[in-house]
Amino acid sequence: MYWTREEVTNKYIFKYSDGKDPISEADRNKIISDLAEGMPGMKVKDYFENQLEIFNKYEIVLCAIDKETNKYVGIFGSKWYENYDTPFLYLWTAFVAAQYQGSILFLEMAMRHIKDSMAESKDLKLIVTKTYHPTVYRTLEMFSKNAKLNLYPSIDIDNHEHLLAEDARKIANIVAPVAKLDEKTGALVDGMATAGIEFYSERPTCSVQAINEYFAAALNTYDQMLCIIKFDQEGSLNKCLELLNKMK
Question: Is 46 domain-assigned?
Fold first, then answer.
């Protein structure tokens, strides 16, 4: 059985998988169809067709269903990387339907992955993701400022000088071995090459113009931004979880 458990909140049904068993054709088709409907103009179906193994690529696959519409509105995956100086959690921040991108759903899904890692007694110090979407970076930036975390890259410095520059160089080779890290900007050149498509019909934007301009200058069609959050203060991870609970 593909799904291992289900959790229900006031607004969403969260379905979990450990990615070990194959997903049913019916579930796969509904996820893709619902997300394609919820992200008009994006090549959602092409993305999944070019990555047939994606539902079994991660240790945790988490899907969000809107209880009112019974449609899938988000999917994230995560994988724990042990073989690194500081083991890290990699988040595949795949899709959140357009209508929900201004909501707390992104953070809630991310935090559910974090809680699962904590439940397995993993010493979580780093979270890593790759993105082309400024909204993902904006969400991480907003959260990192409120919880006083270290976020890479910074949009207002040469990131050669960033405190996480060395981590970024090493991690880039792990999560995007075919890409080249632009150490000044944090861009993974050809980071989306494995998808083999131009996913966005137009360049996505967020509510902060400085971030939009940074992404536009740093990223070409097949590039992605490498994003790293470091929990470098005692109790900072728990502070994040407390902050999320207050935002709900």
Answer: no
- Does pTM top 0.85 for this prediction? yes
Number of separate domains in the chain = 1
Determine the structural domain holding residue 232 and report its residue range. 125-248
Tell me: the pLDDT tens digits for 111-145?
888 888 777 656 778 899 999 989 889 988 887 87
In a domain, 112, yes or no: no
SS (H, E, C) the chain: CCEEEEEECCCEEEEEECCCCCCCHHHHHHHHHHHHHHCCCECHHHHHHCCCCHHHCCCEEEEEEECCCCEEEEEEEEEEECCCCCCEEEEEEEEECHHHCCCCHHHHHHHHHHHHHHHCCCCCCEEEEEECCHHHHHHHHHHHHHHCCEEECCCCCCHHHCCCHHHHHHHHHHHCCCCEEECCCCEEECCCHHHCCCCECCCCCCCCHHHHHHHHHHCCCCCEEEEEEECCCCCHHHHHHHHHHHHC
pLDDT for 33-92, tens place per residue?
A: 999 999 988 889 988 888 888 999 999 999 999 999 999 999 999 999 987 888 899 998
